[in-house]
Amino acid sequence: MHHTITSRIGSTDITIETGKLAKLADGAVTVRSGETIVLVSAVSATSIKEGQDWFPLTVDYREKAAAVGKFPGGYFKREGRPTEKEILTARMTDRPLRPLFPKGYLYDTQIITVLLSADGEHDPDMLSINGASAALMVSDIPFNGPVGAVRIGRVNGQFIANPTHSECENSDLDLVYVGTQNDVIMIEGAADELPEAEFVKALEFAHPFVQQIIAMQNELAAKAGKPKRQAPLFVVKDELLEIAYQIAGDRIEAALYTPSKVARSKAVDALKQEVKAAILEKYPEATSFEVSQAFDYLQKKAFRVSILDRKQRCDGRGYHDLRQLTAETGLLPRSHGSALFSRGETQAVALTTLAPADESQELDGYTGGETSKRFILHYNFPPFSVGETGRTGSPGRREIGHGALAERSIEPVIPSEDKFPYAIRVSSEIMESNGSTSMASVCAGILSLMDAGVPIKRPVAGISVGLVTEFNGDQLTRYTTLLDIIGSEDHFGDMDFKLCGTDTGVTGFQLDLKLPGVSHKILTEAIFEAKEARGKILEVMTAALAAPRAELSKYAPRIETIKINPDKIGLLIGPGGKTIKGIVAETGAEINIEDDGSVHIYSNNPESLARAKQIITGMSKEIEVDEMYQGRVVSIKEFGCFVEVLPGKDGLCHISELADFRVNKTEDVVKMGDVIWVKCIGIDDKGRVKLSRKAAMKERNEAAQGEPKA
What we know:
By secondary structure, the chain is an alpha+beta fold.
């Protein structure tokens, strides 16, 4: 049966509909805002594969060109591999859902969002998250939801819910907030150095809208929801947990607290083999899943006892201590800018490359928003960074997500194109990984930008804050935040909250939880803890390099910017681009022309730069009466010759003006290609230029005679 729920969220109506499309899916809804519509389906298998010991949740988001009435680009005229926008939206849809499936639910589950219509103003990413939650709610799939998602902007100091793309252009905040009825479960976004107090207010502003969206889904589920299936959950017997604790309970803590990551892994693996042997000896039928889960339980229990009871972290630090920080710039001689940033066993090398502004990345997409990026940050995570072998090649979803987080955290301090007319790329190469490599990428990236001479507004630093909790049933009894978490604290802990900013305010953030929600109180504590730590990190960074270098690398392209009359742009480009291509071919410089008449000339060679500037400046000038010019003879006639005195501009030097004597034949004085001095002696009402070699020779001779002798 067809059911529809509509509610006004901020200034926009959101409509959730089920029972019309994709009725064979376990659950499916369409979600609409304006003329943007997505279909979201949820399907889950009823059996698991043999030996499976993890929850295979897959979330995909795909955009269709037909949603905006276009053909896809490319030879095949078909949508291809997912774009970065599609991958990031899929990740953002996945993260708040994952903690809300029952523990032990290991059935292959797939969420697919398809963009059916896009109006270019209402972004479908919020619709995807809300639709995924709603599809699970109306399905028979076990799910401890719903969740609600809302985007918050801030225009002229006022918060707005679900702003359009047009409103976002004037917003200094882009907050994606996902919550349950009472708590926050995921946040992501960027801000233009937003003070922490305002950031906290934005979170508080968002939650009532989430509750509205949750009420919509509950109403829809009450009308159209299927009874939840009774799927067997895969949990480990208490007997196996007890064996694991007997065998390694008194030694696991020492293994977990081995200082080095590599040594720690070896010590933990050795204990795991002992536990496996003991379990299989008593229970030969035990599966690898049960063995793995029993040992994982043992580690989590030891980890939480150490943190909450003994107040001891794996590497011996206090709850709110940073690992050792080091920073270095100018690492690589040929890169335009480079830096190394280390925090404990996490290490990132960043390289900055500058290029002409027309090298900006063109963005394919159908949902509106930005169409190009002149600042790009790419993140690369090779397997050797964790001491392992593995796949190398094109980046995975995790790498794209980490790169996007670092990019949006740095972007607010990148100078505008009119102040620094370059395209900028930062490549973060992870050398070692033991927690928060994306935050190390922010720090290394900023230092490499400064090393390249990019005049950033202020340095940005990033840090992660973790969380360890203890519950009695559903009641939180104890918790502590952990600053600068390492890999094991991320794995066994409950939160990874990454927060970036300057000494002025927040620029980027991302919250991941293993809990089904966290209170605003805990999140606020983490926000201000990160602020204090950020100040310490910035001190180390500025000690390595206090300000952007005054000079660019000798290998970076230099730039000259000149202004021409916009009416002259067509002349500079020439028919089919012939003129500008000729200038590029002659000089070797790169040229970028803007609609306002700004011409940016890029070259590593000063002579190339000067020659291109000379040609373009000449083309934009007009021939003036009484001015002297050195020009080239471009045409010979019986009555004189035509001389090109400025690029693309010539005039007639009549045979009577070629010399101060009678000339019988033009070729007696000049030939094709000769470079001669001429003077403009007039321009008629039709714009025809009259030149005189005779007048130029006289004036030059008089000038020479008037000069003092050496």
